[in-house]
Structure formats: C-alpha cells, structure tokens
C-alpha cells in the first residue's frame, strides 16, 4: 500500500497514540521466546512453558482469552484461561496462582508481553514473552524483547527459544 493508504489503515485500527487496538491483536499467535526469573517455571513440563495457540481480546467485555498447550507429566494439555482488564490496563489472570499480564509492545506480527505470577506458596516469578504470527522475527523485535527482559531484571541466559524446540501438536 501507498503511504496514504497505510496512514488510513492505521487510523482505522489504531488508537490516537498509534497503538494497535486490542481487537486487532486477536488471532493466532505462536510462542517464540519466554524468559523467567525462575527457570523451573519454563523448563520442560513447567507450568509456564506454554505454547500459545490463540489470543482473543474483547475490549467491550474487558477480557483476554488465552488458548495454549502445556505439557503436564509428559502429556499435552490444551488450556483456556481468561484475564480481566484492570483500571491500569493490565489483565488479572488466574493460572498457576495470581497473574498480572500486560502487552508491552505490539505489531501485526509480534507481541512482547510481561507477566508477574504469584503462586499458591506466595513465590513471585517475573516472566517476559515474545509471540509471533509467522516465522519471521526481526532483529529489532528480538532486541526489544531482550531489552524488556533485562528491564524486568531477568538475565538473558534465562531466555528459552521455543522456535527451535516446538514439538507441540497443532490443533
């Protein structure tokens, strides 16, 4: 599309500050990378080693629905959890304890997210994620994710590459 067409398209789907509207982020997403302050949460069979399948944002209802696969005791389980939008724009999600989830960067093909989990024992875990719609992730998008990870106090060595380790079944 031309520059003018691009501006018109963006004005229809974006908020005045240029951010994509939540509904525009709904659809098929795949996990590319996840980082965690607690590696046990994202190791094989860990509760946050999630293979995202779909996200559905409903701004009118103030919800986000996560559809994903996770391995439990060596077997794949398909999960669906719902988050409720809070006044600060984050989402409260009940999964493996209490979570505060937010999208920190979005484009048509990538999402950078941040999640704080407090499990049933009161242990806090900070996570970041990079999700994709296709196989291409630019160097600048990956750098943005790594910067978010560092900003949240997670060492880069705690980043797990899901692209190279995806043995998740397709629906």
Automatic annotation (TrEMBL):
Location in the cell: Secreted
Domain Lipocalin/cytosolic fatty-acid binding span(s) in chain numbering: 26-163
A GO MF label: odorant binding
Entry-linked Gene3D superfamilies: 2.40.128.20
Pfam families xref list: Lipocalin
Origin superkingdom: Eukaryota
Main location: secreted
Species annotation: Capra hircus (Goat)
Similarity comment: Belongs to the calycin superfamily. Lipocalin family.
Lineage: Eukaryota, Metazoa, Chordata, Craniata, Vertebrata
GO cellular component: extracellular space
InterPro entries hit by this protein: Calycin, Lipocalin, Lipocln_cytosolic_FA-bd_dom, OBP-like
Alphabetical keyword list: Secreted, Transport
Protein name: Lipocalin/cytosolic fatty-acid binding domain-containing protein
């Amino acid at each position: 599309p031309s520059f003018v067409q691009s501006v018109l398209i963006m004005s229809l789907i974006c908020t005045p500050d240029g951010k994509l509207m939540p509904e525009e982020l709904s659809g098929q997403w795949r996990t590319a990378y996840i980082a965690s302050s607690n590696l046990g949460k994202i190791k094989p069979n860990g509760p946050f080693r999630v293979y995202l399948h779909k996200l559905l944002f409903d701004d009118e209802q103030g919800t986000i629905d996560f559809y994903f696969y996770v391995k439990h005791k060596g077997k794949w389980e398909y999960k669906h959890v719902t988050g409720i939008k809070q006044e600060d724009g984050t989402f409260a999600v009940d999964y493996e304890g209490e979570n505060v989830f937010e999208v920190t960067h979005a484009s048509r093909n990538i999402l950078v997210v941040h999640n704080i989990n407090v499990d049933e024992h009161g242990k806090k875990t900070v996570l970041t994620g990079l999700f994709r719609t296709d196989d291409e992730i630019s160097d600048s998008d990956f750098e943005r994710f790594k910067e978010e990870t560092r900003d949240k106090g997670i060492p880069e060595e705690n980043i797990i590459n899901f692209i190279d380790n995806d043995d998740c079944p397709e629906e």
